[in-house]
Structures are given as C-alpha cells and as structure tokens.
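Human: For the file, kindly provide a plain-text protein record giving the amino acid sequence and the backbone structure tokens, at your earliest convenience.
Assistant:
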Amino acid sequence: MNKYEKKLYKIAPKGATIYELTREDIASKTEGTLDFFLGGLLRFGKSLKFVKSVGAFFLVINGEHVELFHIKPSLEVNKQNLTGRLQPSKNRKSFDYNGYRYTLFRKKHKISSTL
C-alpha cells in the first residue's frame, strides 16, 4: 500500500468502494489515434510520470454518493462531489470532468474500517 492509499483509507467513509484513477488531458484526434496503434503505451507512460509529480486520484463511491479525491505528493487532499454529475456504472471505464479524462485503473476493496 502506497502513501496515497494509506491517506485515503484514513479519510474515506466506511463501506465505500474505491477506484484508483489515471488522469490525462483529453487527447486530440491525432494523439488518440497514435496511442491506439501503440496499445496505450503513451497514455500509460504519462500516467506514471503524473503520479510522481501531481499525486494520485481516486473515485470513492458510497451508496449513491460519488466523490473524486485528489491526494497531492504532500498528502494534501482535495475532493469534489460528483454526485449527480457521474452515475456509477459497471460498464463504464472512464469519464470526462473539467477538461480531463479519468480512467478506472484498478478497483480497491470496500473500506470496512479505518486504519
């Protein structure tokens, strides 16, 4: 468990489901096409650099309540309520918000208790 996950587990509500996210600028058609042919390597490389410099992003779903958490390298937390803007769906792997595309990277387990 990395420092971002430890911080999140301390502040997220009990029973919430957590998804780790990658965030990227919404790509132009040229970038999107190139990334498609490279099998997502461009997007993946940018995401790794991004975590080190900007921090980590998580989607926290607690019932119908949906929040986007941004944890900076300093462990400062910013969260935005996305309830009503984003409907949880098992078929949806990404969403666009404020000029960025967030992609579900991996699902974390439900939080049963705080650490």
